[in-house]
Write a structure and sequence with these properties.
about 130 residues; mainly alpha; about 0% strand
Length: about 130
């Protein structure tokens, strides 16, 4: 008697380290995205407003606030929350986050001790600062 139909699932399950129902879902699906939610981009209700939003952002060189955009969309008849617009902007506008400048590195304890214990006349100009 040859291997049963479940033997390939059990082999795949062992190799993948997944539950048998997960392996069976992948085996029965025609495309991977049918069983892998969240890995493909879903549309947004704001996608239909993208041309308008991108024109407004470009015309103000990015100087328009999301609050103003939300108000303008409301005037155009869109009923939606500010948080939806904020999340859409984070996801779709691809603006790099502004990171504050790192402060200069503090001197090491050994270096500070050297400054404090040496004669001021033996310090270089940079060490006087």
């Amino acid at each position: 008697m040859g291997p049963g139909p479940d033997s390939s699932f059990s082999t795949a399950r062992k190799e993948a380290g997944s539950a048998s129902d997960t392996v069976q879902r992948y085996a029965r699906a025609e495309h991977w995205h049918q069983v892998s939610p969240g890995r493909h981009r879903r549309g947004s209700r704001l996608d239909v407003h993208y041309p308008y939003l991108s024109r407004r952002i470009a015309s103000t060189r990015g100087g328009i606030s999301l609050t103003a955009l939300h108000s303008e969309l409301a005037e155009r008849g869109r009923q939606g929350s500010y948080s939806t617009l904020r999340d859409w902007a984070r996801r779709c506008l691809h603006q790099p986050r502004r990171t504050p400048h790192k402060p200069s590195a503090l001197p090491t304890a050994r270096l500070a001790t050297g400054w404090l214990t040496r004669r001021p006349s033996s310090l270089s100009e940079d060490e006087h600062r």
